[in-house]
Amino acid sequence: MAERLAAWVWVGGAALACVAGIVNVVGFLGYQHQAITHLTGNTSLLGAALVVGDRQATLHLAVMLGAFVAGAALGGLIVQDSTLRLGRRYGVALSLESLMLLAAIPLFRQQHLAGPLLAAMACGLQNAMATTYSGAIVRTTHLSGMFTDLGIMLGHALRGMPVARRRLALCTLIIGFFFAGGLLGAWLFARVGYQALYVPAVLTGATGLAYFLYRQLRGTTT
């Protein structure tokens, strides 16, 4: 449950939700209005492209979905567990995400498909890191589950049932920071274009370094 989540999970979840919000809005405002983390919408668009016979869109959307899955597979390969706890290789995964985002910037500028593909892979890697811990689900690149949980808790409140306040706080935190990332990403993109991606790249790199130092101070091993 959310009550058992350590403080570093809350801080990391908020930071990564902000990262995903920035990346997603930069992709949407930039290269072919391509949402990076919105797999539900991209899957629907893929179906529509297949029906109308748009081969270019079909290929584009298919490889976008594949890139996200590949990133998640890489995350599973690195972390090797579904339990959030110190001692797992989150620092390595975050550093790789940072490098992917940095590499995506010049490709975005050239309007090359490899730009959004690298961004999608980075987000898949990030989302794979934030999995389960004592029954609490943490996802940082999309909000459907968080909004669903909010609706469930609202229903419980209307019925006079107890509300999981910590879970409510977690959902609000993730939604709020994803939204803040979208605001920041849109503001930066209007001023510096694809250089806005330097912010999530630096943030993930710094978070990975901070996690590594924190883990060393706690005396844990990978």
TrEMBL record:
Pfam families in the cross-refs: DUF1275
Signal sequence interval, chain numbering: none
Domain of life: Bacteria
InterPro entries: DUF1275
Transmembrane region(s): 7-29, 59-78, 168-190, 196-214
Keywords noted in UniProt: Membrane, Transmembrane, Transmembrane helix
UniProt name for this protein: YoaK family protein
Native source organism of the sequence: Luteimonas soli
